[in-house]
Amino acid sequence: MSLPPQFLDEIRARVPLSRVIGRKVVWDLRRSNQAKGDWWAPCPFHGEKTASFHVDDQKGFYYCFGCHAKGDALTFLREAEGMGFMEAVELLASEAGLQMPERDPRQAERADRRTGLVEVMEQAARWFRLQLQGGAAADARAYLARRGLDDAACEQFGIGFAPDQRQGLFNALRGKGIDPALIIEAGLVAKPDDGGAPFDRFRGRITFPIRDGRGRCIAFGGRSMDPNARAKYLNSPETPLFDKGRNLYNVGPARAAVAKGKPLIVAEGYMDVIALVRAGFEGAVAPLGTAITEDQLRLMWRVSPEPVIALDGDDAGLRAALRLIDLALPMTAPGQALRFAFLPQGQDPDDLIRAKGAGAMSAVLDEARPLVDLLWRRETEGRVFDSPERRAALDKALGDAIAKIPDKDTRDHYFQALKDLKWQLFNNRRRRDEAPARPARPMREGGGKGRDRDARFQPVAPVAPTRASRLSSPDASEHDAEVLIEAMVLAICATHPELIAPVESRLERLEPQDTDRAALVHDLLSGTQSQAGQRALESILADPHVKAAPAILRPHEGDAASGILTNALDRIEARRAAREEIARAEAEIEGMADEGLTWRMAQSARARQQADHPSLADLSDLGEDSESFRAVLEAALKNEIWRKPRR
Q1: How many and how are cofactors bound here (predicted)?
Q2: Residue 448 falls within a domain, yes or no?
Q3: Do residues 190 and 259 both lie within one domain?
Q4: Contacts with 288 (C-beta within 8 Å, 6 or more apart), sequence order
Q5: Are residues 257 and 144 in the same domain?
Q6: If both were cysteines, with which of 6, 139, 306, 614 could 626 make a disulfide (CB 3.0 to 4.6 Å apart)?
Q7: Considering the chain, what percentage of its residues have pLDDT values greater than 90?
Q8: Is residue 647 part of a domain?
Q9: Cα 106 to chain centroid, rounded
């Protein structure tokens, strides 16, 4: 129904916002200025002790400085009370003493029909409650007593009993003058397809009324007393009142409890919710016989910004949690998070509370983990990442998952959290698996005993670009080579961003000395763009050695670029390892030999390093300049560099 804007403005003007919200909060009168319509209170949308929730009667808006909830009176009734838009308007119009505009006749008919269905459901709930006191319900009462539910609990939750009679409820409601068509539409009885007499849907079952956010009975759940029943639990069918994917059991009382600071706990069934509430966890709800849906997630987040999913300690509970990951990730955002609490193996909340009390349940809830931890567990548990391909597969799976998160800030924080977890996993594995390197033995014919193979290095004549490179000149320094290799690494990653994920951990260890290049590394890893990083990239791409490389000239050739990138990183890491080895060796022999020996050994090691890991001349072909460095080595040996020159 379309309402005139003037009508809504009149409602807002006549009903102070503080009057609407005041039914749900306790005002902080020391901070509030009642005369000016300026009010402060603890927020009803998230648990807190300080008054960060502000209501301005003059402007007609509220805002929470903690969870950032905001809106007007209609928004508040919809978010805090679970009302529909028209329901909220009708309530405020009644308080304002205004007559609702004339409704469309069909809409009025539907609204009247819903009101009639609600009345039918309330009549059924009272009848089921009465039947629980009868002789046919002896087994049901005994079962409830074994589960720790006394008369007070049954009264609190409206628990009843449906006798095993084909038309017990149907005849009782007809006796009250209720139209049979209305009883059928409410889902209380079923009409056979062959045109036979309607029969009760719930028979021989303990009944649990399902109520909406306003406390109206909209459906029932029934627990069978027959162990051989086809379905242990049965819910009402879809009706004009009830959509099982859009409602939660106990949502109304849970919303009130969360407003008072209680956590929102999502359990699996009716008995779990009842056990939690009676143990002091009043903010408990449950889905209605199905896996959690998108609509149910949205409803949970309207109640609390961070519901705790309390899952049974079995394989089914874990599978339910893992299924929820892909549903929740595209919906996560600031103020819309999830935590997961796993109960001991083979126990649900009801079992745990009856066995060990509320303290044990509190301990489980205190250990609840965020969604990112569950995602990590799903992608890594029981798997071994002992090869580049397996690590790349992990990177891809995690990347695909967090790419579903629409909010950039949330996505960035997920990226950082997963990066930290990967570092811990691979670093611990590396420390455990690494062993001291052994010198390579000469290769032999056939891979076994026999004549030593001719393993002499067969040089390849350098091509023209190599000979022209500044790195092949006698004046080229080791530092120049490494800076240029580093530039190629950064250029390839910027040109081929799809290659970053497989080498992410290696990029993190790059540590350029140039601050602009360090900023570029951060940009590449985080997907951001900074001025310093952009400045470094422009400088790198202007270098003739870089821009002439095939990987940059032909960016569509990703496979070639991948090989060059891996090779370049290998060179950088080999040089770093050689420097560290030299430093350790020099430290170990210090004091054991004279200064000349120390200097000569360092020079010899550096010459060997240059021979084993030649610089990058033509960056399209790593290794073409090995001939020039072989000449450096031969010259060093010929001049006996281990002898320090006399002064």
Answers
A1: Binds 1 zinc ion per monomer.
A2: no
A3: no
A4: 210, 219, 221, 235, 244, 245, 247, 248, 249
A5: no
A6: 614
A7: 36
A8: no
A9: 43
Residues 394 and 268 in one domain: yes
Residues 481 and 596 in one domain: yes
Give residue-wise pLDDT tens across range 539-591.
998 888 787 777 777 766 666 788 888 888 888 888 887 777 776 666 655 54
CA-to-CA separations, 39 to 50, 67, 79, 295, in angstroms, rounded: 13, 17, 19, 33
Give the total number of structural domains in the chain: 4
Q: What is the mean pLDDT of residues 411-439?
A: 75
CA angle at 234 for the pair 232 and 239, rounded to the nearest 5°: 170
DSSP letter assigned to residue 476: -
Q: Write the single-letter amino acid at 119.
A: E
Residue 643 lies in a domain: no
Q: Out of 212, 235, 258, pick the residue that ends a domain.
A: 235
- CATH number of the domain where residue 51 is located: 3.90.580.10
In order of 296, 326, 386, 438, 558, the CA distances from 392 in angstroms are: 35, 21, 11, 28, 16
Q: Are strands 205-211 and 160-162 parallel, antiparallel or unpaired?
A: antiparallel
Does residue 443 lie within any of the structural domains? no
C-alpha pair distances (Å), 168 with each of 139, 231, 281, 398, 448: 18, 20, 36, 56, 90
Q: Summarize pLDDT for 352-365 with one digit per residue, the tens.
A: 999 999 999 999 99
Question: Which residues sit opposite 71 in a β-bridge?
Answer: 62
Same domain, 219 and 301: no
pLDDT tens figures, 69-101: 888 888 888 877 777 788 888 888 888 888 887
Return the pLDDT at 628: 46
Sequence-distant (≥ 6) Cβ neighbours of residue 174 within 8 angstroms: 180, 183
Last residue of a domain, one of 63, 96, 129: 96
| pLDDT, tens digit (0-9, with 9 covering 90-100), for 103-114 | 666 766 676 788
Q: Are residues 328 and 471 in the same domain?
A: no
Rounded to the nearest integer, the mean pLDDT of the chain is: 80
Per-residue confidence at 175, pLDDT binned at 50, 70, 90?
A: very high
**Whether 77 and 119 share a structural domain:** no
Half-sphere exposure of 208 (CA within 13 A, CB side): 24
In the prediction, which pLDDT does 458 show?
A: 41
- Please state, as a whole number, how many other Cβ atoms lie within 10 Å of the Cβ of residue 147: 14
Range of the domain at 81: 5-96
Q: Are residues 532 and 607 in the same domain?
A: yes
- Integer Cα distance of 125 and 157 in angstroms: 11
For residue 94, the model assigns a pLDDT of: 87
Please answer whether residues 642 and 606 qualify as being in contact, where contact means their C-beta atoms are separated by less than 8 angstroms.
no
Q: The CATH number of the domain where 380 resides is what?
A: 3.40.1360.10
